[in-house]
Here is the input.
Amino acid sequence: MATRGRPRSFDRDIALRRVMEVFWAKGYDGAQLNDLTAAIGVTPPSFYAAFGSKEAAFREAVDLYIATIGSGPMIALAAPTVHAAIAGVLAESIDVALSNGAAGCLLILGVVHGQPGVSGACDYLRVARRRTVALLQARLMRGIDEGELAPDSDPAQLAAFYHGIMQAISFQARDGASRGELEGLVAPALAALRPA
Here is the structure.
């Protein structure tokens, strides 16, 4: 069966990556339709035909970010020791935060103000961040179960703390912190891991 209308004049995968970069640089609130269409070289009707809506494009962009650029911190959780895993998460968070000219993490800075009309985008990021905290907590719990961390360690509290450090890395990178300044956060943060 033939498709209706003109065929797309762009590669959707490349277009999605460019859309992700716009959202990463400007956030959901700051990214206007003309920014998104200019980034991929299409008209608004073509943008809507490809993505459906700005929010749908944002969700796809967030999913792409999680699967690609933002995957490093969660991959680091597979390290053989809990100390190496958390150190890796923080090191990878620094790499991600400094990997783009806008600096910071899309999951953290994608919607900061939560203005009216952006609740769907806010909720989508909130769920993604909660998954991050849950993965951190599971790795910390494993560290307790395997006898690496003190048995009275609180994995939920530690997970929230390390997620807060990831957020600090993102915000400080956006404010122009150097790699050295960001790396200076790691050793004090790791001190919260009390060995068994």
In short: The chain is about 65% helix and 0% strand. The mean pLDDT is 91. Residues 31 and 164 are 25 Å apart (CA to CA). The two ends are 65 Å apart (CA to CA).
